[in-house]
């Protein structure tokens, strides 16, 4: 049986890769994929701890995370497509109307 | 022992695929890298004896979310994927911040006594039943479950409205302009 810490190390590594990509990449779709990557690494940690403590609450949380991720992806991709229609670009630096 | 080999192979593949997903300039290749990571996560869920979540992962993430991303790529494709630098100009700061994050996470895990233990108890063979009961039990997670379903419905309707651009449609089908003139 693989120890829980292996899974947690893998989850931390994947989370870091996703965080770097969110900060560094300029393409909005890639940033979306990186957010999905981070959500997945958190799910992995949840399931690993659910097994370690013999408790299904962790798995239920993963269930809800998957639901919220589906909702987030639907809204986010609709926004990206709409922004692309007005700006003809999915570059994150092109979206500076809010002066953020 | 077999579980260790599967874990090593799958985790190596996942890290490589994640790197492909976030560094590749070709959006479709990046999406395929993401799909590989999602599938590796499903394999690890099976190793962790979370069979229901493994199937849900494949159906929802690979079957729905990845396909949605592919559709978004096809809808935004003409301009762009080879325009300008792929990385933001302040990438060095981002690497510093993320390196700090990685060091902090690893330090925290390495110094945390709960993380290096083995599983306390084997997973209940009827755990899918327990999962389903917990989702509808009044003293379980029935309220979050219902709220999540309402949220999903609201988000999907909102996504349709946003993507439609708030246009008003009179008839049952959107009419073309030449049909209106005629």
Structure description:
The complex is a heterodimer of chains A (about 100) and B (about 180). With about 100 residues, chain A is mainly α. Chain A has three helices and no strands. In chain A, helix 2 packs antiparallel against helix 3. Chain A is elongated, with a radius of gyration of 17 Å. The model of chain A has no long low-confidence stretch (mean pLDDT about 85). The model of chain B has no long low-confidence stretch (mean pLDDT about 80). Chain B has seven helices and no strands.
Question: Secondary-structure map with pairings?
Answer:
The complex is a heterodimer of chains A (100) and B (182).
Chain A: H1 4-24, H2 28-52, H3 57-87
Helix pairs in contact in A: 1-2, 2-3
Chain B: H1 2-23, H2 27-47, H3 51-75, H4 91-110, H5 127-136, H6 142-164, H7 177-181
Helix pairs in contact in B: 1-2, 2-3
Short descriptors:
heterodimer; A: 100 residues; mainly alpha; Helix Hairpins; 3 helices; B: 182 residues; Four Helix Bundle (Hemerythrin (Met), subunit A)
Summarize the structure.
The complex is a heterodimer of chains A (100) and B (182). Chain A has helices at residues 4-24, 28-52, 57-87.
Please compute the radius of gyration of chain A using only Cα atoms. Answer: 17 Å
Look at the helices and sheets of chain B and give the structural class.
mainly alpha
Work out the strand percent of chain B.
under 5%
Largest sheet of chain A: none
- Approximately what portion of the residues of chain A adopt beta-strand conformation? under 5%
CATH topology of the domain at 1-86 in chain B: Four Helix Bundle (Hemerythrin (Met), subunit A)
């Amino acid at each position: 049986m693989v120890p829980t810490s292996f899974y947690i190390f893998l989850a931390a590594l994947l989370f870091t890769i996703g965080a770097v990509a969110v900060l560094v990449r300029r393409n909005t779709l890639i940033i979306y994929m990186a957010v999905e990557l981070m959500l997945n690494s958190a799910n992995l940690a949840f399931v690993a701890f659910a097994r370690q403590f013999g408790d299904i609450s962790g798995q239920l949380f993963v269930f809800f995370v998957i639901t919220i991720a589906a909702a987030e992806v639907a809204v986010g991709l609709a926004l990206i497509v709409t922004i692309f229609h007005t700006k003809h670009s999915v570059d994150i630096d092109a979206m500076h109307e809010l002066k953020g | 022992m077999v579980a260790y080999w599967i874990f090593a192979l799958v985790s190596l593949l996942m890290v490589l695929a994640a790197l492909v997903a976030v560094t590749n300039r070709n959006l479709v290749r990046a999406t395929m890298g993401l799909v590989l990571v999602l599938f590796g996560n499903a394999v690890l869920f099976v190793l962790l004896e979370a069979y229901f979540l493994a199937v849900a992962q494949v159906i929802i993430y690979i079957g729905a979310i990845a396909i949605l991303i592919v559709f978004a790529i096809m809808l935004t494709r003409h301009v762009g994927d080879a325009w300008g630098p792929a990385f933001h100009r302040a990438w060095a700061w981002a690497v510093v911040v993320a390196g700090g994050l990685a060091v902090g996470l690893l330090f925290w895990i390495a110094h945390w006594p709960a993380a290096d233990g083995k599983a306390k108890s084997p997973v209940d063979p009827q755990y899918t039943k327990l999962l389903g009961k917990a989702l509808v039990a009044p003293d379980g997670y029935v309220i979050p479950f219902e709220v999540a379903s309402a949220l999903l419905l609201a988000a999907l309707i909102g996504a349709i409205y946003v993507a439609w651009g708030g246009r008003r449609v009179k008839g049952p089908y959107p009419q073309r302009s030449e049909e209106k003139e005629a």
